[in-house]
Amino acid sequence: DDCGGQPKTPCGYESDAAAEAVRVRGTANGVTFAVGALGRPHRDVEIGVAYLGRLSTTIEGEAFVRRSNATLDITARDPLFGGAAPRDLTGRATLSYRLPDMIHAGVTWRATRRWSLGAQFHWLNYSIHDQLDLRLTGSQFRAPPAVLDRIVLHRGFVDVFGLQLAAAFALHPRLQLQAAALVQSSAVPAEAG
Which of 151, 106, 159, 109 is closest to 130 using CA atoms? Predict the structure, then answer.
């Protein structure tokens, strides 16, 4: 939270003195849906597909803002602000965001009485989770020097694709040994790393 505030805790930004912190705590509700289908084109093959809908929600609650060292230094020296400004502010806020929808598809093949092989593919629409929209509505945030009343954080996420291959061996009718390998892309673009 307080990187840049002490020499021991640098932020790694272009200007550590300009670093600020914002935390939001509250509650939210949302509604989504899921649908799926399972088919058996052959007695030893099962194919399934499922869709989970996206979720748009808004958290309503309290925000904590820690002002940057640069802001505190300027207000302490400027007589227009009447002296030092408080470092920490608390007030009402809302945070809006969207969670991704996703598709899962898979196939299982019972190769023998004891061996089964499977493959699963999934897609997560993370590109819609591209921003957080924070609105600071508490009156304390408007006291000079005022804090921005709206902050939109662009995340730059991209869609995630994954493939899993699995094998299972039946040791007993009620006991199975399974192994799987998963390859999955990242929601954070490579150029952001």
Answer: 159
Say which amino acid occupies 11: C
pTM for this structure? 0.72
Nearest CA-CA partner of 94 in 59, 66, 65: 59
What is d(CA 118, CA 96) in angstroms, rounded to the nearest whole number?
A: 38
- d(Cα 53, Cα 124) in Å, to the nearest integer? 10
d(Cα 13, Cα 24) in Å, to the nearest integer?
22
pLDDT at 178: 95
Mean pLDDT of 66-84: 78
Rounded Cα–Cα distance for residues 82 and 33 (Å): 54
The backbone torsions φ and ψ at residue 77, rounded to the nearest 5 degrees and listed phi first, read -95, -15
* Residues composing the chain: 193
**What pLDDT sits at residue 144?**
78
